[in-house]
Amino acid sequence: MRKEHKERFEKLRQIGCIACIKKGRITTPVIHHIRKQTGLSLRPSHDDTIPLCPEHHNMGKASVHLNKKLFNHLFGTEEELLKETNLKIIQLEQETILWK
User: Fold this and answer.
1) Which end of the chain has fewer CB atoms within 10 angstroms, the N or the C?
2) How does pLDDT run across 73-99, given as a tens digit for each residue?
3) In angstroms, what CA-CA distances link 1 with 13, 59, 65, 88?
């Protein structure tokens, strides 16, 4: 994995689960790769990743892997959440610059 992707994943961990944030909670995430026209054996780009806690990733009734329709209804599509995540990364980077 390239350094830039490791740095992205660390920022995703700092942000926390993007779905939980919408509920006012902060939880430790795992990294979810958004599949865009990739087969099951092909890993999507590390750039197309969002932070989701296990409940929202693949363990809960409203998780992206177990019930995508409900997940999208409650939290937005993966593409919408990717845009929100990327904005949060920019905010995090700006905060880091201010504290240096």
Assistant:
1) C
2) 999 999 999 999 999 999 999 887 666
3) 16, 26, 24, 22
